[in-house]
């Protein structure tokens, strides 16, 4: 018997967990499940990778199964709101597994796909609905669903919801929920505005906090290369050639930037794909699947698209552009070094990004190890082939760009990709200054929160 059984979860749920190979609850599960089984509200400060999906799913499924109500026409018993399509799909996929031995229905709706099929599926009601806010409101407006019977409400990634400008839709949705309900509110960070938002939804919540941000990525070796904006592309190409990473995630600040990186890499014979808000759902799904299968080893992503996605075995994270918000850096590098594996994070920092690097160092209390530009960089960069041409298509306005991706069509579509707008900074520019210090790649990168000799603490 696993420790899960001691938490009081129903037998079919324990069986599902066993088939998944989960033996012990993660800290957030251990802390949340008993309170949630008692029907308490919950304020969870945790990021993806902590096991928070099971933390909110297991006790909720237990409750829904224990008190079968019969589905009401267009009704929903449990509503889970997610900021992005990928995260919504992932939550629903996990919940279906946890509910596999229960007679409960789990549906998932998000934008970017036809609405009619979703309407048909929801007509008879659903036990669990995982949704993004925009599509949920569309479905409510078209009278395809009603929230008046919601018993459990989960708001996931609240900070990202705010960043994406979902605050007004959220308030609208909240106003449609019955007063009598259980509410769960998760956020990776808890600045004042998020705490205030939480207070609107929650009633005397239990507060659970796991793995403070600055210690989540203890095993990540961190490096920084100082390079001008215009030389970043060549640096990435040469680094990828040199390292031949098992699975590399490259973060760019903009959707356009992500597509451009894909084209340039394609020109140099390196297959990659981009995921961002201008891609259609099927393109994003295909790109992710190709990356997970190892068919492509390099995935270029913007923060929004990558948020919450669980990709195992990422060996390298490249911060092609530094994020505007320091916490985002921790999210990004947390994508590698999961499940006890070591990971490497390399940041490309131009002169005008140095203040952002300072902010990151202040937050993480770690100074990434300088990794100088490769020997003969300028000459090698000059010999790189030109970018692959973008496929024929008018490149105008929304949805106008299309990235080459090794022959696959990962073209764009619309989305409300908001990004982090806490601080603006000018783009481009910045001279090179190959940082001195130790050469990279020797396994001596700075680690967030680690107490190693190699770690230089700052701030
Ligand atoms: P999450 O933070 O919900 O995205 O979960 C992160 C990863 O941990 C997912 O791949 C889950 O399937 C996995 N996971 C969740 N709970 C457990 C557990 N108790 N034991 C092992 N793996 C788990």
Structure in words:
- The strands form two sheets. Strands 3-4-2-5-6-1-7 form a seven-stranded parallel beta sheet, sandwiched between helices.
- The protein contains 17 helices and 14 strands.
- α3 packs parallel to α4 (52-66), α4 crosses α5 (85-98) and α15 (326-333) crosses α16 (354-364).
- It is an alpha/beta fold and 459 residues long.
- It is elongated, with a radius of gyration of 23 Å.
Strand content: 5-15%
Main pleated-sheet profile? 7 strands, parallel
- DSSP strand tally: 14
Structural class: alpha/beta
- Global shape: elongated
The radius of gyration computed from the alpha-carbon positions, rounded to a whole number of angstroms, is 23 Å
User: How would you state the average pLDDT, rounded?
Assistant: 82
| Separation of the first and last Cα atoms | 47 Å
Molecules bound to protein: adenosine monophosphate
Structure at a glance:
By secondary structure, the protein is an alpha/beta fold.
Which structural traits does this protein have?
elongated, 14 strands, binds adenosine monophosphate, alpha/beta, disordered C terminus, 459 residues, 7-stranded parallel beta sheet, 17 helices
Please write out the topology:
Elements: H1 3-6, H2 11-20, H3 27-37, E1 42-45, H4 52-66, E2 76-81, H5 85-98, E3 106-109, H6 115-122, E4 126-131, H7 133-141, E5 152-155, H8 158-163, H9 167-176, E6 182-187, H10 192-201, E7 206-209, E8 220-226, H11 232-243, E9 248-251, H12 255-267, E10 272-275, H13 281-293, E11 298-301, H14 303-306, E12 316-319, H15 326-333, E13 343-349, H16 354-364, E14 369-370, H17 377-382
Parallel strand pairs: 1-6, 1-7, 2-4, 2-5, 3-4, 5-6, 8-13, 8-14, 9-11, 9-12, 10-11, 12-13
The structure holds adenosine monophosphate.
Adenosine monophosphate is lined by residues 22, 24-26, 29, 48-54, 310.
